[in-house]
Design goal:
Elements lengths: L1 H21 L7 H5 L1 H7 L1 H29 L3 H15 L12
Helix pairs in contact: 1-4, 3-4
Length: about 100
Amino acid sequence: MTTLFVILIVLAAVALGFIVLIQNPKGGGLNSSVGGVSNQLMGVKQTTDVLEKGTWIFASTIAILAITSTLFLGGKNASSKEANDVIQKVKPTTTTPAAPTK
């Protein structure tokens, strides 16, 4: 389950990074060269809206995955039980000395 969450978060982060990199608030840069055909079909304003919505979607996806992963990745109870088992195995058995007799 851990691997699934890691893969999903990494994919969402890569997609978010790509979307952020092709945006330019001044309307030039990579956005015009990568999406040149889509600008002719949809217009510059709609392309900017799609990129902004994609940014919010992928950012919220990363946040939701990070929060929900803590629910599925073994909580406090599992860790403390394993820690107690290890402590019991490592802990030496000691006996208290008897009180001296007079």
